[in-house]
Amino acid sequence: MPRFSPTILATADPAIPAARAWAARYRGQAGPALDLTQAVPGYPPHPELLARLGEAAASRAAASYGPIAGDEALRAALAEDASGFYGAAIGTEHVAITAGCNLAFAMAMKVIAAPGENVLVPTPWYFNHEMALSMAGVVARPLPCQAALGFVPDVVLAETLMDAQTRAILLVSPNNPTGAVYPPQVIAAFAELARRRGIWLVLDETYRDFLPNRVPHSLFGDPDWGDVLVHLYSFSKAYCIPGHRLGAVIAGEAFQEQLAKALDTLQICPARPAQQAVAWAIPALRDWRSDNRKIMQARAAACRAALNNDWIDAMGSYFAYLRLPDGAPDAMQAAEFLAAEHGLMTLPGPFFGPGQERHLRLAFANAEAERLAELPQRLAGLV
Fold first, then answer.
1. How confident is the model over 192-251, as pLDDT tens digits?
2. How many CA atoms lie within 13 A of 295 on its CB side?
3. Could you read off the pLDDT of 327-376 as tens digits, one per residue?
4. Which overall architecture, per CATH, does domain 6-44+288-382 show?
5. Which residues touch 185 (CB under 8 Å, ≥6 apart)?
6. Which residue(s) pair with 345 in the sheet?
7. Domain 64-284 - what CATH class?
């Protein structure tokens, strides 16, 4: 049999299918299964957005190739929206549209790091980030974060973990899996560290639309932000269209020039029907997006109330990160038991990096409040 690539063999198996496989043994004894594995919006897209998606998919124009960096209308709409959100001028030339945010990350890493080099990644980390680095032959170097500090990374510790092969620092805020929101001064400190060391700060803000009404950082206000910052964004959560795979990279023009090589090679152009529909949706559905943020805040409150703050080590816009109590099995065994015997699908901490054997992640955004009220009963079998 022909050999497989060593880097693909060293890459972890997909996490969510593994967790759902445990649930295949569930026989319904605790009621309908409750799947809290994947971060998907638990409500449908706006009906007008669906209608426009259908119209665009049926058009001949959307069936043709588009610009490598994405359609001009969507790039301009996101640039305007981001400028308003961050209170700083971001131009269309700074925006590239990608086939989802996972691919945005993977292609940005093609620009930043070569095989054998490393990227500093706070743990617990988003498993697809580590997987993308691993299959590219780039080392994901763990930056441990502590529950006692709200899982916010320590910039002083980060610098001690860097070496001559470190090419970037990755931050995800609001964080997946913990939900932690990094304070603006922490993000600024990491940007300063990256600038001083001559490396990139890659900031993934997939969940920024679910933040309270405040500016999460002022990095775009620096006239030289393009020399250090690479910003990642996803349309999946805010517009409820994860199946249409739309993400974005906001970066300086020099970075975009190099990124175009990866864009042209790995995606040619993003799928065009969703680009056309979302270009309309960005300005038209601002109020709808704001209402959805309130829905998520209500679900977070319902999750917190159901667990009575017990178990919860951290919570944010989409996720609750639970610490298993004394007497409960470790996370892998606990997640398998909950899925197979109690119909509660969670992701165990070891999927999110080293040192997470006593944690489970719940993606509570998937479920309405009445389903989240079932959590105490489902979890009770662990202790």
1. 999 999 999 999 999 999 988 778 999 999 999 999 999 999 999 999 999 999 999 999
2. 18
3. 999 999 999 999 999 999 999 999 999 999 999 999 998 899 999 999 99
4. Alpha-Beta Complex (3.90)
5. none
6. 35
7. alpha beta
